[in-house]
């Protein structure tokens, strides 16, 4: 039986998956989200419409141990591998959001990384948002490319696919996913009028230093 913390996370995953579609951040069943729950990962199930999803349908997978093992009435998202591998490699990550949001996906299709066109790039840990190399969805190759693109970052684009945002918890990851799509939209439109004027390393570093007290904080932070 799930404890109260796990039950709350299951409910939050359903609510946030529905919000992603209602807000336009995602479409249909193309995206997926996950959250760390102790030594396990909770993840949305495969090919399940969010408006019919219930907390009991959320799949549970061990982060360590029997790789790929799953508990639940439904199979986990076909993208469970990069969710699980991120959780294994990044103990700082407690929530992961993957969407096919329009502008981030446009840039991913064009394989255009997002440069330091806005100070909010600093929220993602560096001077740019990288594009992970293309690989078939759900594969080990995609997972490896994703981990590389996320080194020192909290978000990336997936070539010809979509985007990923990661955070200390699910709320932070979703906040970053919204910010990533917003920056992608701004960058896209700036390209239409001659291209952006980019910020310097010093300017981005200044913004990064200020982010200790800016934006949505992980749960438990004061």
Task: Extract low-pLDDT stretches.
Answer: none
Give the helix tally. Answer: 6
| Helix percent band | 25-40%
Task: Write the CATH fold name.
Answer: L-fuculose-1-phosphate Aldolase
CATH architecture: 3-Layer(aba) Sandwich
Strand order of the largest sheet: 3-2-1-4-7-6-5
Radius of gyration: 17 Å
The CATH superfamily title: Class II aldolase/adducin N-terminal domain
Label the overall shape: globular
What is the N-to-C succession of helices and strands? HEEEHEHEHEEHH
Number of domains: 1
Distance N to C terminus: 31 Å
CATH class: Alpha Beta
Task: Map the helices and strands.
Layout: H1 4-23, E1 32-37, E2 40-43, E3 59-62, H2 80-89, E4 95-99, H3 102-110, E5 131-132, H4 140-149, E6 155-158, E7 162-167, H5 170-192, H6 201-210
Helix pairs in contact: 2-4, 3-5
Structural overview:
The chain is of the alpha+beta class and about 220 residues long. It has a single domain, classed as Class II aldolase/adducin N-terminal domain (L-fuculose-1-phosphate Aldolase, 3-Layer(aba) Sandwich), CATH 3.40.225. It is about 35% helix and about 15% strand. The protein is built from six helices and seven strands; from the N terminus they run αβββαβαβαββαα. A seven-stranded mixed β-sheet has the order 3-2-1-4-7-6-5, with helices on both faces. Helix 2 crosses helix 4 and helix 3 crosses helix 5. The two termini are about 30 Å apart.
């Amino acid at each position: 039986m799930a404890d109260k913390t796990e039950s709350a996370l299951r409910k939050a995953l359903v609510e946030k998956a529905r919000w992603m579609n209602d807000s336009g951040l995602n479409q249909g069943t193309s995206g997926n989200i996950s959250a760390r729950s102790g030594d396990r990962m909770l993840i949305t199930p495969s090919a399940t419409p969010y408006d019919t999803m219930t907390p009991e349908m959320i799949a549970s997978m061990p982060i360590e141990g029997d790789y790929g093992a799953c508990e639940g009435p439904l199979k986990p998202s076909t993208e469970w591998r990069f969710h699980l591998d991120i959780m294994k490699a990044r103990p700082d990550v407690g929530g992961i959001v993957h969407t096919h949001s329009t502008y981030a996906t446009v840039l991913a299709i064009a394989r255009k990384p997002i440069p330091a066109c806005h100070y909010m790039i600093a929220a993602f840990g560096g001077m740019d948002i990288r594009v992970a190399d293309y690989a078939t969805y759900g594969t080990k190759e995609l997972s490896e490319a994703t981990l590389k693109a996320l080194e020192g970052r909290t978000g990336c684009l997936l070539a010809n696919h979509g985007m990923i945002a990661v955070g200390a918890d699910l709320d932070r990851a979703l906040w970053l996913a919204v910010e990533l799509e917003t920056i992608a939209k701004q960058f896209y439109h700036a390209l239409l009028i001659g291209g952006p004027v980019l910020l310097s390393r010093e300017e981005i570093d200044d913004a990064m230093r200020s982010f200790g007290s800016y934006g949505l904080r992980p749960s438990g932070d004061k």
